[in-house]
Amino acid sequence: MNALRVAVLGVGVMGSYHAEALASRIAHARVTVVTDADQTRAERVAKTVDARVEADPFAAIGADDVDAVVIASPGPAHEEQVLACLDRRIPVLCEKPLTTDINTAYRVVQREAELESPLVQLGFMRRFDPEYAALRELVTSGELGAPLLLHCVHRNPAQSTVFDSEMMIRDSVVHEADVARFLLGEEITAVTVKRPQPTREAPAGVSDPMLVLMETESGRLVDVEIFARSRVAYEVRTELVAEHGTAMIGLDQHMVVHRTGGARTGLLARGFIERFAAAYDTELHRWVQAARQGTIDGPGTWDGYAAVAVCEAGVEAVRTGERVPVRLGARPVRAAA
Ligand SMILES: NC(=O)c1ccc[n+]([C@@H]2O[C@H](COP(=O)([O-])OP(=O)(O)OC[C@H]3O[C@@H](n4cnc5c(N)ncnc54)[C@H](O)[C@@H]3O)[C@@H](O)[C@H]2O)c1
Ligand SMILES: O[C@H]1[C@H](O)[C@@H](O)[C@H](O)[C@@H](O)[C@H]1O
């Protein structure tokens, strides 16, 4: 097969990064079409990746020069765009979250299950990060004994004013929901959220930071500090506590240390692209190879849906202050499986 011809829907921060990677670093792929609600942005990115602009994302999905699609539009646009790709039976890499509520996410799971093979891969890039992959290997090897707890820190230095408590759960904590399922190999069953004194950086009514406590099927606990406006750096750490030992990732070992004027200064990652650059490229590389065979090689719709379900419970927990059970629908059996 020739190079995979990809349409990128949404070329803001994430989509333009993926488009640039596909055009320059990922073998056997090229970007043929870009689309964005902001036409000027679409044209600017199209020029840098040598693609054409399509104003309507659904026309891009249906275009003759498109074999596969990367969806990097905002979460509320994902459901319709993914479903249109499924209607056309073409592979998709959909950025997280799969959708922004549990019912729409389940619809996508059900629709995909009617097809012969999975076509939707979720952009949970941490699964492709060498540190997370090593931590999972450590868990599955049994070297540290049975896992008991996960402590997670997820801090962004800043977020826009529209990034409210609900988005902190649906857009940020969704990563920890997936990481917990990936590392522990079981579903999350309930969520509780504590809202301490907010930072003065937080817009009125926004609870920033928050502590999220997740319970798993076998009774393990996962705690997450989500802090969207820490003013420090991009800090993502995960510590596993197991019966015979502990292991921590995200310790800034790639930090650049400056020595000047009698002082030593380490520069921390400023954002997700700096921290997860290699993971995004590995994710895309694996997706391209799989998409050329008409399938996926990474987290799928069930993973996307399960994480959305955890977030749905989390949003309710923020609102009510209660412990909220995660309500997962039945996992459909693929018709052709
Ligand atoms: N995996 C990660 O670490 C990661 C990091 C950042 C963002 N994301 C995800 O990627 C997606 C995009 O986030 P972003 O930070 O790039 O946002 P962004 O606002 O920078 O970019 C989104 C772009 O989509 C465009 N757009 C709006 N509606 C559209 C539509 N219906 N169809 C096509 N384009 C549309 C906007 O004009 C904008 O250019 C989100 O789902 C977000 O959660 C994932
Ligand atoms: O969309 C981004 C992205 O998913 C990042 O990985 C996460 O750290 C941010 O909190 C979120 O806003």
Automatic annotation (TrEMBL):
Show where the GFO/IDH/MocA-like oxidoreductase domain sits.
132-247
Question: What single Pfam family name could you report for this chain, choosing any that match?
Answer: GFO_IDH_MocA_C3
Under Enzyme Commission nomenclature, its number is 1.1.1.18
- Give all residue intervals belonging to the Gfo/Idh/MocA-like oxidoreductase N-terminal domain: 4-117
Q: Which reaction does it catalyse?
A: myo-inositol + NAD(+) = scyllo-inosose + NADH + H(+)
- UniProt keyword 4Fe-4S, yes or no: no
- Which of UniProt's keywords are assigned here? NAD, Oxidoreductase
Main function: Involved in the oxidation of myo-inositol (MI) to 2-keto-myo-inositol (2KMI or 2-inosose).
Q: How does it assemble?
A: Homotetramer.
Q: Which family does it belong to?
A: Belongs to the Gfo/Idh/MocA family.
Identify the HAMAP family for this entry.
Answer: IolG (MF_01671)
Q: What is the name attached to this protein's record? A: Inositol 2-dehydrogenase
Organism source for this protein? Cryptosporangium minutisporangium
